Structure formats: structure tokens, C-alpha cells
Amino acid sequence: ESGLVSSWLTAYYLSLLQDFYLALGFPLDRIRFRRLGDDEKAFYASEAWDFEVLLESGWVELVACNNRADYDLNGHARESGADLSVMEDGVSIVPHVFELSMGVDRSILALLELAYRVENERTVLKLHPYLAPYNAAVFPLMDKPPLVSYAKAVYEDLKLDFDVFYDQSGSIGRRYRRQDEIGTPYCITVDYQTIEDNTATIRDRDTMKQERVPVSDIKQYLTLKTALELC
């Protein structure tokens, strides 16, 4: 309605693309759409936009967005002699094509750069939990038989449904730091209270806050926390 884009088709796909990247964790103030001029866009495009992200090197194109209009199907119809039109509200029209050309490697590079942080004395990769290499890590508080046995049982159960990592080497602080560096969003620690009441400590990577959760509820907790919600 404002005239910023030429059609509802363009508006729909640009909106869908933005929602997708926002859901992956791209900050709104680091992304933009840049409309291409006639001297930049492809000959077949009635309208073209680049979806870009602001990195240390400047604005980088991630997705080329081309409204190809009826160029493709008119070409097929002309060469094949087939009628490729459809009826829309009693009117015969040739469907339009909207093309999204996405660079997966660039998107991953951008995600890694935007997620990388050095905070105080720790290095952390703040990836969206859905994208992290591991959904969670499981630790015994100390390398003691009852704690190790319980922690391994939790790990074996969780790995049936999630990507989880088990670690019992070194101090608990060092284990937290190792997981921060690779982006693991949640660390589950089995301690002596776990043996008493079947609750475990879950530490949040980004806030470093900890909460006790019943072991029986950990799967539900991770399911909710690691889901990718698209608008």
C-alpha cells in the first residue's frame, strides 16, 4: 500500500525471509533489504532486492530476491505451445515466480560472527539453541562413582531425543567454559542433591543463571528451550 514494494508477492516473501533470519538469531539492527536499480538487477526481474547483514567487513549479501514475474512461464508456454495460465477470480492469468537465491555458507559465517562474544574472562558462542552443535551437556559435579553413574544414566536417556555431550574431566568451571566456547546452550549438572531428590541443576549459557529442574522434566525443558519458532 505504501508503494515501497511493487506487489504483495514481493512483500510476502521479503517478510518471510526476514522472519526466518530473525528466528535464527540475527539482530534486527544488523539486517536490511537493499533494492537494486535497473543497472544492477537481472534482465528477467521486474523487481530485485538483496537481503544483507552487517558484519565486521561491512554489509554482506546473504540472499538475492528476484520477482521474475511471468517471464519463466511465458517462456515455457511460448516454446512448448502449452497453455500455462490459470483462472483467478474468473480471470485468466499467468502465474508469477519469486526467486530466493540463498548462500548457505555466507549465512553460517554470519551466524558465527554475530554469535561470537568475549565477555569478561570467558569466550562464548551465543548461537540459537536450535542451531548449537549440542542441545545440552551433562556433567557429574565431581568424578565420584554415585554422581558419575547417575549423570551417565541421564545422558543415555537424553541422547535418544537430543544432541547431548557428556564430560566428567576437570573442574565444573572449566567444563562450563568449554561448552560456552562451542555454543552449548544448557549444562545439566548432577550433584548429591540429585541423588536425594531427583532434581538437577541446569545452567543457561547466556545468562549463566542456574535452576533446579526435576530430572523427569528435563526432556520437556529442553524441547521448549531449543525449539525454533518461526513467525
Automatic annotation (TrEMBL):
Q: Which domain of life is it from?
A: Archaea
- GO biological process terms on file: glycyl-tRNA aminoacylation; small molecule metabolic process
This protein's record includes keyword Aminoacyl-tRNA synthetase: yes
Q: Which UniProt keywords are present, listed alphabetically?
A: Aminoacyl-tRNA synthetase, ATP-binding, Cytoplasm, Ligase, Nucleotide-binding, Protein biosynthesis
Q: Does the keyword ATP-binding apply?
A: yes
Q: Which GO terms describe its cellular component?
A: cytoplasm
Q: Which CDD domains match?
A: GlyRS_anticodon
List, in alphabetical order, the Gene Ontology terms for molecular function in this entry: ATP binding; glycine-tRNA ligase activity
The Aminoacyl-transfer RNA synthetases class-II family profile domain is annotated at 14-129
* Protein's name according to its UniProt entry: Glycine--tRNA ligase
